[in-house]
Write a structure and sequence with these properties.
CATH class of the domain at 231-519: Mainly Beta
Structural class: alpha+beta
Largest sheet: 14 strands, antiparallel
Radius of gyration: 29 Å
CATH superfamily of the domain at 231-519: Copper amine oxidase, catalytic domain
Helix content: 10-25%
Length: 714
């Protein structure tokens, strides 16, 4: 039977198309498989220590809401469900995020009837990272060229933390909903590779490394995790109850002293971890479904030889503490005494993700039957008639050392921050607000980073006198790298934690000081900020950088967290080595002197990108762009003069904090999903597909050649 040449060529093309389809399907399946493996690994981190019985697996948006990304749903305990009259754990808060509008949608669901009892939107809230947003975040990360160049097959990368809700102060992530994916550095040097994902824009916002460190020679904690106990306790005239929440830590409730209500609720809505070297940080949450979960059980401990007690709860992000790089360990404490004094205490054990850091726990304290307040202003106690923000809170105090006085129905209390910082750098913000529904009375959702939101978005000049008063307290715990160690686990873990204590003491009467007492007061350092009448915009607050020497400025600005500068900083991090910058600065840009180049690099770092960084080509938008507003002209001159003296790189191994040990090689993977000896790497798979394409092309061309050699009718 004779077959025309055209028919043969048509069949050949059909067969070739079939093979091409099969190969492309294999490539697509491989990519999906890599994401699936990465999802499985990350989900192992997410479910570690979780309580599935308290998590509502509701993965679809109710029909009466606009399309949005499902984030999570958690059952509400007794204290959190009160605003909706729900029995304990019979209602759940479902959280969604409208990626198109940048709005969080909340819905309280009655689990018996499966109906919504409340729905509201919050344009300021930024949800946590959860298992439900992992597929989207990993898909965005896997498609990014820089991530591919660094990690290769993302399915083979080992995650360090669960997706962390975070922000970048000099990027759209200062307001957009962003999460940070963290992986072990592929070089095996113990560092952490960060991939910041902007979920609203569907792109990677930034990638960078943070420090590595070897395991410390200390015993690991017990294997117990996700342990806590709800309860009540009576002693020394006090009665206090407490309940673990999903995301707001322990909610201390129904506190009374000698039968008189003192506070109705006290909880921590978030712990904001700020890193100047990024610049940005995390919005940590504590609770049974949070990024940092309960560990080791709730303790009731005697204090003051039995004349008081404290209720304390530890939260740990990862149970290998302190032998981990990016891990967080916090304690929440309420302490009471027989004389009526009570304290709210917060402890950070570190180590966190980088050296220079500031931890900010956000306490919300619902004072019982309190409708009057006075603020100390220079020479007298002044009635706080409207909502206001108090900062500074630790200076410009009354002669007896207080900043705030409140009155409940039967008692006056005076408030002060107990100094704990070894360098006297204690700092705190206090917000006085009128109580309103959906302003933290239920579960608290975090806001844009570095904005003190919530509660600042609710500060609108409402009346306080005669109204129920809510107190928000935000201390700033600032890392000290080196003696005196503070907020750091080096050189010894467990003894260098930092803490912030807010103390309230009962007084008989509000005492206006005499002229003699006023004469003993130091001059005021600042005045109380004016009362806000408009809702503040969610923009970052530039933090001035302290320091009069180059070494101090480098430490306080976070330069050493990214660069090695002679003997300062750490090698092998995200930024280029500046140890010889004085010798090459004048050669970087034609017609630009070394001094002018260094000034431009500090103030406008994206104008010229250095050619080489430790992990490949240097990238734009990595170095902070706000130094012009955070450094003085004199500090910039000091920095330039110091950098000009750096003319020779110092050959030394990558050192770790608190010692001279060289960073270890990668820890052997024990993850059951890690690569097996027979598995192909991503590069190997890609080469395999390239060979298939090549062979298919060769067969196709050879067949065409043979067809041309045969008669047209054969």
């Amino acid at each position: 039977m004779n077959v025309s040449r055209h028919h043969v060529m048509g069949r050949l093309m059909v067969i070739t198309a079939v093979f091409l389809t099969i190969i492309l399907a294999q490539i697509r399946a491989q990519a999906d498989g890599r994401i699936a493996v990465a999802l499985a690994k990350s989900n192992q981190m997410l479910t570690m220590g979780s309580m599935p019985s308290l998590i509502l697996n509701r993965a679809e948006l109710p029909p009466n809401l606009p399309p949005a990304q499902f984030v999570q749903a958690v059952r509400l305990g007794q204290s959190e469900a009160l605003p909706w009259n729900c029995p304990a754990y019979q209602c759940a808060l479902a959280t969604f995020y409208d990626l198109a509008r940048g709005v969080t949608i909340n819905q309280v669901i009655d689990l018996h009837s499966d109906t919504a009892v409340a729905t509201w939107e919050d344009p300021y809230a930024r949800p946590p990272g959860t298992a439900h947003i992992l597929p989207l975040a990993l898909k965005i990360a896997a498609a990014d060229a820089q991530v591919q160049a660094t990690l290769g097959d993302i399915g083979m990368a080992t995650p360090v933390m669960i997706p962390m809700s975070g922000w970048l102060a000099d990027d759209d992530c200062r307001q957009d909903w962003c999460v940070d994916l963290t992986f072990e550095a592929p070089q095996g040097d113990g560092r952490v590779y960060h991939v910041f994902i902007n979920l609203e824009k569907g792109q990677v916002a930034r990638t960078f490394y943070t420090r590595g460190r070897p395991d410390l020679d200390v015993a690991l904690p017990s294997s117990q995790r996700s342990a806590f106990g709800n309860g009540c306790h009576e002693q020394a005239g006090w009665s206090i109850c407490w309940e673990m929440t999903a995301d707001d830590g322990v909610n201390f409730t129904e506190a009374t002293f000698k039968g008189t209500p003192v506070f109705a609720s006290a909880k921590i809505g978030q712990i904001e971890a700020w890193y100047p070297s990024w610049p940005g940080g995390y919005r940590d949450e504590i609770g049974f479904n949070a990024s940092v979960r309960p560990f080791g059980g709730t303790e009731v401990v005697d204090v003051d030889r039995g004349n008081g007690f404290e209720v304390r709860q530890m939260f740990t992000e990862f149970t290998r503490w302190p032998n981990c790089i990016c891990c967080y360990r916090y304690e929440q404490i309420v302490r009471v005494f027989a004389d009526g004094v009570f304290e709210f205490d917060f402890v950070s054990h570190g180590p966190g993700c980088d050296d220079l850091s500031v931890y900010r726990p956000f306490w919300r304290i619902d004072l019982a039957n309190t409708n009057e307040a006075w603020v100390w202003q220079e020479t007298a106690w002044v009635s706080a008639d409207v909502e206001q923000e108090l900062h500074p809170f630790v200076t410009d105090l009354s002669p007896d050392g207080y900043k705030l006085t409140t009155r409940n129905s039967e008692q006056l209390y005076q408030w002060a921050l107990v100094p704990t910082d070894p360098l006297d750098l204690d700092e705190a913000y206090v917000f006085l607000l009128q109580a309103h529904e959906n302003e933290g009375d239920g579960p608290i959702l975090t806001g844009p980073g570095d904005t003190f939101q919530p509660p600042r978005q609710w500060l609108n000049g409402d009346r306080l006198s005669g109204e129920q008063i809510i107190l928000w307290y935000v201390p700033l715990l600032k890392t000290k790298k080196g003696g005196p160690w503070w907020c750091m686990p080096d050189p010894e873990p467990g003894i260098n934690q930092c803490n912030a204590i807010l103390r309230a003491a009962p007084v008989e009467a509000l005492h206006q000081p005499t002229a003699e007492e006023l004469a003993q007061l130091p001059a005021p350092t600042a005045t109380t900020p004016p009362v806000a009448t408009d809702m503040p915009a969610p923009t970052p607050t530039p933090r001035p950088i302290q320091g009069d020497t180059a070494e101090e400025i480098i430490l306080n600005s976070g330069c050493g967290a990214c660069h090695s500068i002679g003997a300062l900083g750490e090698k092998g991090k995200v930024g280029p080595d500046l140890s010889d910058i004085g010798a090459v600065a004048g050669e970087r840009v034609p017609d630009l002197s070394a001094t002018a180049y260094l000034r431009q690099s500090i103030l406008e770092p994206n104008v010229f990108i250095a050619p080489e960084c430790p992990n490949g080509a240097c990238l734009a938008n990595i170095m902070p762009t706000d130094y012009a507003s955070r450094l003085t002209a004199s500090q910039i001159d000091i920095m330039i003069a110091f950098l000009l003296t750096q003319i020779e790189p110092i050959p030394e191994p990558l050192m770790t904090i608190g010692g001279d040990a060289v960073l270890p090689t990668a820890v052997p993977k024990t993850d059951p999903l890690a690569k097996s000896p027979n598995s192909l790497t991503a590069a190997g798979q890609d080469a395999n597909y390239a060979i298939q394409f090549l062979l298919l092309g060769m067969v196709f061309m050879l067949t065409l050649f043979l067809l041309r050699q045969r008669p047209s009718d054969q």
